[in-house]
Amino acid sequence: MGTRRYVFRVFCQQASVVKIVSRNITAAANPQTNLDVLEGQPHKRHPGVSHLKTLRLPEEVLTAARSIIDRAQVTQLPDRTLKLTNFLWSRKRAVEDSTLRQKALGLENKLWKKAAEKAGNVDKHVLGERIQREVFSELRRTVYHWTPLKYNEELGVVYMASRMAGGYAAVRRALNEIKKRDPTFAPQSLLDFGSGLGTVAWASHSYWADTLKEIVCVDSSGPMNILAERLLKGDDEHAPSHIKHVYFRQFLPVSPKVQFDLVTSAYTLSEIPNIKEREEAVFTLWRKTSSYLLLVENGTKEGHQILMEARDALLQKKEKTLYDTRPASVFAPCSHEKTCPKLALMPAVPCNFHQMYMPLYGHNSQIEKFSYLILSREPPPEAKSNGAVEWSRLIASPQARTRHVHCRLCCPDGQLKHVVVTAQKHSRYVYRCARNSEWGDQLPLIPDVDDNDMIQNDSE
Fold first, then answer.
1. Distance, CA of 367 to CA of 377 (rounded, Å)
2. Nearest 5°: CA angle at 337, between 432 and 273?
3. Residue 123 above 90 pLDDT?
4. Closest by alpha carbon to 256, among 292, 289, 224?
5. If you average pLDDT over residues 436-448, what whole number do you get?
6. Span 113-136, mean pLDDT?
7. pLDDT value at position 220?
8. Residue 23 above 80 pLDDT?
9. Does the pTM exceed 0.90?
């Protein structure tokens, strides 16, 4: 009996040694999973975490906004707020002239072919005019009619009630990516293109109040600039501004040599009518960027594709005149510089993220769904410091199960992958990080070829 116990004990010891050796070999093959990625932090705050808890507008902004809205006495404000929100969310890009011409030509050819199949003598001139009318009628019925939004004071107040809190939450969440991953970044100047109510100024001030010495807010709408200034002064024209050194302009600075540490544009590119003008605007903003360029749009298919147009332009096209020769590199959210793999899905789905926030009125939190893009003049700071490869980004909420976590990732190789993370296979560090991560965070994991499945569609 004693001999059996001794043999069993030796067998267990050998099995434990084999298990430990196996784990060490696996970790050595994938060094990203064996690092103490926590850097002394709890798993809930590992280096890849960039999500934020439910955000609220600063108390000064909240008080000023409510005062402005109450004094404006806009009729049917709740209905108009909902209508504007739905309009902005469902807004599409204007149809390009070339696309419109192609569609008109296709319709015209189809109608001529249909008319030719009918017997009888028909006056071609009369037939041509009828076909032309039918083409115009069909285009008016089926083509999206894009119209620019012109903000007067009343519409600006409606926008304040409907979109300011959500816009602030999205911008602050995106800026947190820079703050978290590049803690040494201390911007002294900021340019906000399409500044609207000044939410970027408030969001950036929450992170870099001690270093920001100049904030230039550019918006073509004079009434919106006035409302933004009233918010800064707490709706009291005689009071000092809560944030100093904020300057309002209706046009971008003329000199192409003037640069800012941080350049932003939130929900503005979608207000530019065509791809050529959007591309020109993006290049202008990039010329004025000395460190980071942040672009934010609605988390819709249209908003995401607008950002991908900007990304492709800055990564693939060259300007005629270069004042700053440092090329663009993608800082976030992509872990690579290849074509967005979500655009290759059938049907294509947007790459978007969620941020909880408290609205101006009410006690129930809401969700802001947004897409963002951050480009940098320098490689990511983690790559400069230790040559580390970019981590994967969670593109959906991880699903924690018993002793494993389902993670859907956008990986450094430009692929979307479904990885089942376990402590045995990926190390307990990565497993605990996965359980404590949320949609949009980076996961300290570079999937191996054999431990994942390709994501075929967004519903998997």
1. 31
2. 115
3. no
4. 289
5. 84
6. 74
7. 93
8. no
9. no
Helices and strands in the chain: count of H runs, count of E runs: 13, 14
CATH code of the domain covering residue 366: 3.40.50.150
Examine residue 459 and state whether it is found in any structural domain, yes or no.
no
Q: How far apart are CA 431 and CA 415, in angstroms?
A: 21
**Residue 454 CA: distances (Å) to CA of 349, 417, 431, 447:** 15, 5, 20, 11
pLDDT, tens digit, for every residue of 59-68? 999 999 999 9
- Give the torsion through C-alpha atoms of 184, 186, 192, 195, to 10 deg: 100
Rounded Cα distance between 157 and 51, Å, is 29
Q: If you search the block for the tokens 């991560």, which residue do you land on?
A: 437
Whether residues 27 and 123 share a domain: the answer is no
Which token pair is 401?
């199960």
Other CB atoms within a 10 A radius of the CB of residue 442 amount to 26
Arithmetic mean of pLDDT, 73-95:
92
Q: Is 56 exposed, middle or buried (0-12, 13-18, 19+ CB in 10 A)?
A: middle
Which stretches within 53-123 are classed as H helix? 59-72, 77-90, 97-116
Helix locations, 2-44, DSSP H: 2-29
Give mean pLDDT, residues 31-42: 56
Give the confidence band of 447 by pLDDT, cuts at 50, 70, 90: low
431 lies in the same domain as 403: yes
3-state secondary structure at position 250: coil
Mark whether 344 and 446 lie in a shared domain: no
Query: For residue range 216-258, what is the model confidence (pLDDT) as tens digits?
Result: 999 999 999 999 999 999 999 889 999 999 999 999 887 878 9
Distance (Å, whole) CA 77 – CA 160: 11
Q: Is 198:224 a contact under the CB 8 Å cutoff?
A: no
Amino acid in position 278: R
Same-domain status, 291 and 430: no
